[in-house]
Amino acid sequence: MTTIIPSPELIASFTDIVGPGNALAMPAEIAPYLVESRGLYRGTTPLVLRPGSVEEVSRILQLASETRTPIVPQGGNTGHVAGGVPREGKADVVLSLERLNRIRDIDPVGNVIVADAGCILADIQKAADDVDRLFPLSLGSEGSARIGGNLSTNAGGTAVLAYGNMRQLCLGLEVVLPTGEVWDGLRRLKKDNTGYDLRDLFIGAEGTLGVITGAVLKLFPKPRGHQVAFAGVKGVEDALALFERASSLCGPALTGFELMPRLGIEFTTRHIHGVRDPMETVHPWYVLIDISTPDSAESAERMVESLLEAGIADGFIENAVIAQSDGQRKALWHMRESMSPAQKPEGGSIKHDVSVPVSSIPAFMAEADAIVTKAVPGARICAFGHVGDGNIHYNISQPVDADTQAFLGRWREVNAIVHAIVLKYNGSISAEHGIGQLKRDELAAIRSPIEIELMQRIKHAFDPAGIMNPDKVLRAD
Amino acid sequence: MTTIIPSPELIASFTDIVGPGNALAMPAEIAPYLVESRGLYRGTTPLVLRPGSVEEVSRILQLASETRTPIVPQGGNTGHVAGGVPREGKADVVLSLERLNRIRDIDPVGNVIVADAGCILADIQKAADDVDRLFPLSLGSEGSARIGGNLSTNAGGTAVLAYGNMRQLCLGLEVVLPTGEVWDGLRRLKKDNTGYDLRDLFIGAEGTLGVITGAVLKLFPKPRGHQVAFAGVKGVEDALALFERASSLCGPALTGFELMPRLGIEFTTRHIHGVRDPMETVHPWYVLIDISTPDSAESAERMVESLLEAGIADGFIENAVIAQSDGQRKALWHMRESMSPAQKPEGGSIKHDVSVPVSSIPAFMAEADAIVTKAVPGARICAFGHVGDGNIHYNISQPVDADTQAFLGRWREVNAIVHAIVLKYNGSISAEHGIGQLKRDELAAIRSPIEIELMQRIKHAFDPAGIMNPDKVLRAD
Fold it and tell me: What is the distance between the alpha carbons of residues B475 and B459, in angstroms, rounded to a whole number?
């Protein structure tokens, strides 16, 4: 598709749909919609539209289809792969879902919440909490990420171990198709085997097949018992052995199992306000263990205590503490969630969101560490993440006193090194952040031609005019 | 597609691929492949092929594509919607997966099993058990159903409440596409957000998009505690109230919650060898409660006892028993699983596999009972099922002494009555059995044109020649 700057008439027609107050074009107004959260990508747009209803979204897409105008749906713009920002040097129109932020219904008996795609994740969590239910999706950016973006990237986060990704948390969807037609798939059913799984096709499609405007999400009874422990371990092997023990002993009550390196504890205690090392002893690695039991506080206590006893007896745990209050539980999670922001003051950081089969984590980490420190002497590897899911955020802070720009200039090179090891272990180059623009060409390079071809056929079947978020996930030509 | 009887040359070419011993054409040999499990459908075929490798499946499909020969993949032929049998009066070639029955790998540390699609479900359960792991999919026909069929129908069963449908139990797939190309999606990753969700598109597609030949399935640590209780309740409302209580008290430890009517207890005790009513009191409805705890037998005991105490205190339970041994636990489940076979000796039975939002179950049941008994005076409604999933097998036995054929002749009419009520409650006309031929035209009638259109586009994108299981799920023309 060649770049066609929309004519003033076309801009006026789009503006008519949402009203002049919700069609932004001034540089200062549109600036926040253009930059990907890490600043790696900066796009261009003639127009940001902020529709206030599904009907307006539909009219926008219909007009876009007729005029072959590329549309980029955007939620909270917290993504890490430049999937929600317009392309650079093109004339993509941004369609922000931010005004579609109504909770349509909440049913604590049926355990569902029906929400507009523009609802902020934290608001959904709060609405569930208000009716004594849990919406378990939880991630660092939950105060600004929006449900439509969470769905479009099949978001993961810290509760995947017990509750699954966004795909497992969604029962039904409402999607505006590229033509403006609305697919009403807002079902509240736990079981429904009636034809192809359209829902899961739109989830994780990063806005390239249509615009998600509403969703039925699952709620859960709130666990009555909640305990968080923090344990120092000798190495990644021991962390994995402890995970296996925890998983067998606690089953689905194991709601979090997060790995952190000593360096991460140093970064967070140094840079993040209020974070303190909860232990007096120093360990090479740490795990945060989160346990939720349905019935009582006592059962969670019993469980965390037996787990720590078993872990110490087995020799997997060097030292451990159990949070004694809600405040302490939050403080431990705050430390874990600060791992990524705490890297910023340390200079440039090259990031990887990868997964490998759980049992390959130690081998993958050892091999990656060796090759990366050889390629970038002095590199400070701060790899942390969701061990139970096999998902490691393999982040690399620049060497002390290195030139930040020169270090960041090696982003692709270092990615290639790490991803090669990931592939050796049959892993994924994007465990939870998606593909967007950042990993699009790499995906095409590593996947079989038939797999890319099947995806291209789906794209073409749903969006023959190629107006939906072009050049994301798949190359547009 | 018009019916073209394959030429002797084509038959010979197909036969060459699998060898003469595995290309069946004699009426006695092919008979078992033609009839759907309930006998409602009987198809025709010139040839049943039993390939012994993925390579042979690939060559069969390549030849079928070149010659436009319709192919019907078949697993254990235990389906209930005639999705796995050839069409009547056509010349579909049956491709049986029964010889592809090798377990390729089992990894108790990584908690995965990799299996050929033709493996029998019970064999997968056994292989998992042998390494102290659980493969939770469990259903009445598990002794003959095959994994490829379970995947192609997104099978449910009795453990969905805690573990999900087949879609939630599968990490990766190997699929032979209509052209014979093989998509290797045999990934072992819990998190992998790299493009469109091809896996979940093939799962539940009933063999209309390609032939699943292998899968990576999830295993789970075996629960150490297991308790089964059986409770008599006054009505469906009380059963649902008890479910809510159980779900909040036990969380994911609630691994089964099945509803049965008094009539079902009478049918099973009357006709099924070894089934006895476990209680001396008589109740209008019963629930089977299955609890599995990860850590210990004691925690399961504690949990089931507190649940029954709470249920009695709340007035939801009239009487209850707890199984005292593994034998008693099995006996209670055997009773539940005999609900459907026990209807056979009672004459004809018109069946519905429907779901509604969980909170609508009592209203749906009351309304359906009233309308059905009005339409078919004397009809004996034996509705049972997975209450926690909203999935009711709303089965209707013929009136005593009625003419069986005349009663079964009203199948479509009664279906229409029941399904109209299901749709009123925004339910599904196929909760777990799929669409096949039985519900294909009904699906087209009740779903929005755009939804059917999207499915047709997917079908066309994957199978442009229309050779894959034509006329199943969607009409072929």
Answer: 11
Number of CB atoms found within 10 A of residue A413's CB: 11
pLDDT band per the 50, 70, 90 thresholds, residue B3: low
Torsion angle in degrees (nearest 10) through CA of B147, B152, B156, B159: 30
Task: Let me know: does B290 contact B160? Beta carbons within 8 Å.
Answer: no
Beta bridge partners of A49: A23, A95
Spatial strand order of the sheet with A103-107 comes to A103-107, A112-116, A211-218, A170-176, A182-185
Please give the ipTM for the structure prediction: 0.96
Q: Are A396 and A353 in contact (CB under 8 A)?
A: no
Residue A3's pLDDT is what?
65
For residues B5 and A29, the model is more confident at: A29
Q: What is the reported pTM? A: 0.96
Backbone angles phi, psi at A64, to 5 degrees: -60, -40
Token pair of A437 as six digits:
């623009």
- Determine the angle formed by the axes of helices A361-375 and A236-250, rounding to 10 degrees: 150
Checking if the pLDDT of B130 tops 70, the result is yes
Average pLDDT, chain B: 96
C-alpha torsion B196→B199→B204→B209, nearest 10: 80
Residue located via tokens 């076979």: B341
Which residues lie below 8 Å from residue A124, measured CB to CB, with a gap of 6+? A103, A113, A115, A135, A137, A147, A217
> Comparing C-alpha atoms, which of A477, A396, A465, A409 is closest to residue A440?
A477
| Res. A186: pLDDT tops 90 | yes
Q: How far is CA A38 from CA A112, A428, B16, B301, in A?
A: 34, 21, 59, 51
- Buried b / exposed e over B159-196, threshold 16 CB at 10 Å, is bbbbbbbbbbbbbbbbbbbbbbbbbebbbbbbbbbbbb
| Residue A187 C-alpha from the chain's centroid | 24
List the structure tokens of A190.
Answer: 């736990």
Q: How many helices (H) and strands (E) does chain B have?
A: 17, 19
The closest of B456, B15, B98 to A195, measured between CA atoms, is B456
Query: Is A447's Cβ below 8 Å from some Cβ in B?
Result: yes
Does A454 sit within 8 Å of B457, measured CB to CB? no
pLDDT of residue B2: 58
**Which residues 130-189 in chain B show a CB within 8 A of chain A?**
153-154, 156, 160, 162, 164-165, 167-168, 177, 181-185, 187-189
Chain A nearest-CA distance from B303, in A, is 8
What span, in angstroms and rounded, lies between the C-alpha atoms of A156 and B191? 8
Residues of A in contact with B139 (CB under 8 A): none
